Amino acid sequence: MNKEHRGRQTKDGIRIYDDADFAGMHAAGKLAATILDEIAEHVFVGQTTGEIDRIIEEKVDAAGAKSATIGYKGYKHASCISVNHVVCHGIPGDKKLKDGDILNIDVTVIVDGWFGDTSRMYVAGKLPRKAERLIEITHDALMRGIDVVAPGNTFGDIGHAIQSYVEGHRMSVVTDFCGHGLGRVFHAPPNVLHYGRPGTGAILEPGMFFTIEPMVNLGRAETKTLADDWTAVTRDKSLSAQFEHSVAVTETGFEIFTLSPAGTFHPTYKT
Ligand code: MF3
Ligand code: CO
Ligand code: CO
Question: Which of 104, 171, 240, 262 has the fewest CB atoms found within 10 Å of its own CB?
C-alpha cells in the first residue's frame, strides 16, 4: 500500500493501516499468543483462575510489555477467564477449577503501542463429550469467519459464515458481544458482528485490523451480566465457548497476528 493511505479512515471510521504497521501488530499478537501457549500447563483441576491470571501478568511484565486490560474501565486483571456458562469477561478469582471445567482465557497485551488480543479454550481434567463438540464448533466457526476475510468481501460475509455454521450445528451465536477494530487502540470501529447477511456491512479493505471472537452457546443465545458489572453468563446456564484472533485484511486475503507459535491454538483434546 502506498504512503497516501497513511492515517486514512473509511467513511465508517475504520482506520486503514499501512505496510509498516503490520510489524507492530505481529509483535503484539505473537506475545499474546505465546502467553496463551505457555499458560496451558498451569490449567489443571484444583488450580484457581486468580493464580492463572497472576502468572499471565508475570509473563506480560517479563516480556517488557503492558497489559491492556489492567486499568481498562476499572478492570484490575491481566486476563479474562470465563468458566463453563460464563460467556466472556469472567473475573479471575479464588474459585478452584473442577474436573471437566472448560474455560476461555483472553489476553490483550500492548507492545510498543500495538494491541494484540486473543483468546482460546482450555480444559481442567477430562473434557466432557458435549463440551468437546462445543469447543470444536466454536473454533471452526472462527476459522470459517477468518476464511472469508479478503478485500471486497464485507463484514456481513464474516458474520454470516460464522452464524450459518454454528446454527447448522444447532448451537447459538451470542449477539450481545462482538469483535472490534484494534491497532494503536484496544477497541475501535467497526463492531465485528458474529452474525449477519452476505453482502451487508462495510467492505473489507487491505490495512484493516480487527478481531473476530465468536461466542457460542450450547443452549440459547441470551446472556446476562452479573452484579459485578463484568461477568457475562448464559441466561439458561448452558455451556459457552469462545475463540479470538486479531487479524488483518491483506491485498490477497488475510493475515492472523495471533497464531500460536506452539501450534496449540486448538488443543487436540484426547479423552
Ligand atoms: N479482551 C477482551 C476483548 O476481546 C476485552 C476485555 S476488556 C476487560 O475485547 F476489561 F474485560 F478485560
Ligand atoms: Co477482543
Ligand atoms: Co480478547
Answer: 262
Domains belonging to the chain, first-starting first, are: 6-256 (3.90.230.10)
Q: Which atom of ligand 1 is nearest to the CA of 211?
A: 4
Please report the pLDDT score of residue 101 as a whole number: 98
CB 96 within 8 A of CB 73: no
| pLDDT given for residue 6 in this prediction | 56
* Residue of 80, 51, 45, 53 whose CA lies nearest to 228: 80
Nearest to 240 by CA among 160, 174, 191: 174
Instruction: State how far the Cα of 271 lies from the Cα of 256, in Å rounded to an integer.
Output: 29
Nearest Cα residue to 162 out of 89, 215, 203: 215
38-58 pLDDT tens trace? 999 999 999 999 999 999 999
- Mutation test of ligand 1: which of 91, 106, 109, 110 has the most ligand atoms closer than 8 Å to its C-beta? 106
**H or E element that contains 142:** helix 129-147
In the reported structure, the alpha carbon of residue 212 is separated from the centroid of ligand 2 by a whole-number distance in angstroms of: 7
Mutate to test the pocket of ligand 1, among 53, 67, 80, 119 (most ligand atoms within 8 A of CB): 80
- The ligand 1 site (C-beta within 6 Å) comprises 69, 72-73, 75, 80, 89, 106, 108, 117, 211, 213, 244
